[in-house]
Design goal:
It is a single chain. With about 230 residues, the protein is an all-alpha fold. It has one domain. Helices cover about 75% and strands about 0% of the residues. α3 runs antiparallel to α4 and α4 packs antiparallel against α6. The longest helix is centred in the middle third of the chain and has 39 residues. The two termini are about 25 Å apart.
């Protein structure tokens, strides 16, 4: 297969679709953040998938940004960098949850409990130092990145505009999470997951359209112009 910008954009669209569906779907099967669950197979599978979601999401938003880099301007760049940093944070956090927490749960359950408290929204007690600021940092870049990138998409008029609005609104809605239990608040991810998948589909469709032979151009192997 020949590697072209069109093919890469299409692949980024598929990556974003997959990442969005994973982000939303994981919320329904995520085990409760308790030490007893950390060594189970369900915990491992969910966090392997979350690492994959982070990698695919990073590839997806990169393709989205490059598709509309001129139209989104500085606002789009800011949103892309913030969301990219969010996905990198997700990858790092999920790696810890998948590969570091299970041994800790057996050998040092009190430390595993403290780490789960950070990721689960429990109040920090200072025992883990700077690590306790991860949840606040992740919230900030998620909120600001989703808002700015979503608005930039809407203004650019290149990809699905209402998907951009859904991304912005879903990201901003996380400000209400302190009002709900963590098990309920995690479903605030659904609008963002849908928006990312929607934008990925929009990117994929637009890539297929622009990648098609233009009207009246010669198609390789046919020897003459073919009207589209």
């Amino acid at each position: 297969m020949t590697i072209t910008p069109s093919n890469l954009s299409g692949a980024a669209g598929v990556a974003a679709i997959t990442a969005g569906l994973l982000y939303g779907g994981i919320q329904f099967v995520h085990p409760v953040e308790e030490v007893a669950n950390v060594t189970g197979s369900a915990w491992a599978i969910v966090h392997y998938l979350t690492v994959a979601m982070g990698v695919l999401g990073l590839a997806g938003i990169t393709g989205m940004y490059l598709k509309q880099v001129q139209e989104t301007g500085l606002l789009g760049l800011s949103g892309f960098l913030l969301l990219g940093l969010f996905y990198l944070t997700v990858i790092a956090n999920s790696f810890v949850e998948a590969f570091v927490l299970p041994p800790l749960a057996e050998q040092a359950p009190h430390i595993a409990t403290d780490i789960l408290g950070i990721f689960g929204g429990a109040a920090a007690d200072g025992s883990l130092g700077p690590l306790e600021g991860i949840s606040t940092f992740a919230f900030a870049i998620y909120f600001l990145g989703g808002l700015t990138f979503g608005v930039a998409v809407f203004r650019a008029r290149v990809l699905a505009r209402w998907a951009g609005i859904l991304l912005a609104a879903g990201s901003v809605s996380t400000a209400l999470l302190p009002l709900f239990p963590h098990a309920v608040g995690r479903f605030a991810a659904l609008p963002v997951g849908i928006a990312v998948a929607w934008l990925g589909y929009s990117l994929w469709v637009s890539t297929r359209k622009t990648g098609s032979p233009a009207a009246g151009t010669a198609v390789p192997g046919r020897g003459r112009a073919v009207a589209q």
